Amino acid sequence: MGLRRLLVTGLGGTLAPHLARAAEAAGWQVLGWDRRRIPVDDEQAVAAHLQASRPDAIAHLALGSPSWSRGLAEHAAQQGLPLLYTSTVMVFDHEPDGPHRPQDERTSKDDYGRSKIAGEDAIRGAHPGACIARIGWQIDEHSSGNNMLATLEQWQREQGRIAASRAWIPACSFMTDTAQALLALIEEPAAAGRVVHLDSNAESALSFDQVVQGLARRFERKAWRIEVNEDYRHDQRLADAGPARLPSLTDRLAQKP
After folding, report:
1. Dist. CA 125–CA 220, nearest whole Å
2. Average pLDDT, the chain
3. Do 74 and 164 reside in the same domain of the chain?
4. Which of 178, 227, 216, 217 is nearest to 198 (CA)?
5. Is residue 61 within 8 Å of residue 30, measured between CB atoms?
6. Contacts of residue 23, Cβ cutoff 8 Å, sequence gap at least 6
7. What distances in angstroms separate CA 215 from CA 93, 126, 141, 150, one per listed residue?
8. Where are the beta strands (DSSP E) in 100-211?
9. Is pLDDT at 58 greater than 80 in this prediction?
10. How many folded domains does the chain comprise?
11. Most exposed: 81, 96, 115, 192, by fewest CB within 10 Å?
12. Does 2 score more than 70 pLDDT?
């Protein structure tokens, strides 16, 4: 019997490579998606590629159109495959305030959040058994792209300071922890059909200035000039009544790299 085959979209991004490494360590064969060869908005090409690649599960982490999400979900539903779609805390606006729960109304007003709402709806409409995992800002020492630590470094480099609001409680987690949690959801039959919130700060409730100060200590960023303000107000935490799937942010910030 061969390795289980996990199709992971978004391997050119930041989080998907972490998931791929975790999956390979757990005995999966990871399949990617080359958009140059298989255009994501060509429904026939998408369907043909899925039939040819024969994945045993699908993890959809890439940005893309609702039609691509729908095509992946339709194939997974037809074949009875686990499907995980990674969404975002940005489906929620800061009004009404959080903590935000899986069943809460999605209130986003920005383009990114609304695009992820459309992706969620496309996935759920085509595959009611899919798992939707909403995540916050990711933290990693080595990744570039949409990574909190890299962004803070950029702010310090370009502005000579890091402005951090004490009135914002962000949803955030370390990428390696999120990747392990996503893999567990793929492998967990009970996750089918659920919306799951993954946020290491859900219980810690650290404000953004506390997170930044904790990162500066953990990664020895002594040159950071942190300026605390109250410019942005939002309890952005992703609360979930289910089991804790991530270590607490307080504990993670106390650890050495």
Report:
1. 46
2. 94
3. no
4. 178
5. no
6. 6, 8, 30, 183, 186
7. 26, 40, 10, 11
8. 131-135, 137-139, 162-165, 168-169, 172-174, 195-198
9. yes
10. 2
11. 96
12. no
Check whether residue 157 and residue 236 sit in a common domain.
yes
Confidence of residue 1 (pLDDT cuts 50, 70, 90): very low
Averaged over 148-167, what is the pLDDT? 96
Using an 8 Å Cβ cutoff, are 68 and 79 in contact?
A: no
Asked whether the bond before 99 is cis by omega within 30 degrees of 0, the reply is: yes
Domain of 101, in residue numbers: 4-137+171-202
Q: Which helix (H) or strand (E) holds 216?
A: helix 208-218
- Prediction pTM value: 0.95
Pair 179, 209 in one domain: no
Same domain assignment for residues 42 and 153:
no
What's 61's domain CATH number? 3.40.50.720
pLDDT in tens, 62-113: 999 999 999 999 999 999 999 999 999 999 999 999 999 999 999 999 999 9
Do both 54 and 162 map to the same domain? Answer: no
Whole-angstrom distance, CA of residue 6 vs CA of residue 114: 27
Return the pLDDT at 90: 97
Structure tokens at 217: 């200590």
Under 8 Å between Cβ of 182 and 59: yes
157 and 190 both lie in a single domain: no
CA–CA dist 137, 223 (Å, integer): 23
Is the pLDDT at 143 greater than 80? The verdict is no
- Per-residue exposure over 4-19, b if at least 16 CB sit within 10 Å of its own CB, e if not: bebbbbbbeebbbbbb
Residue ending a domain, choose from 161, 184, 202: 202
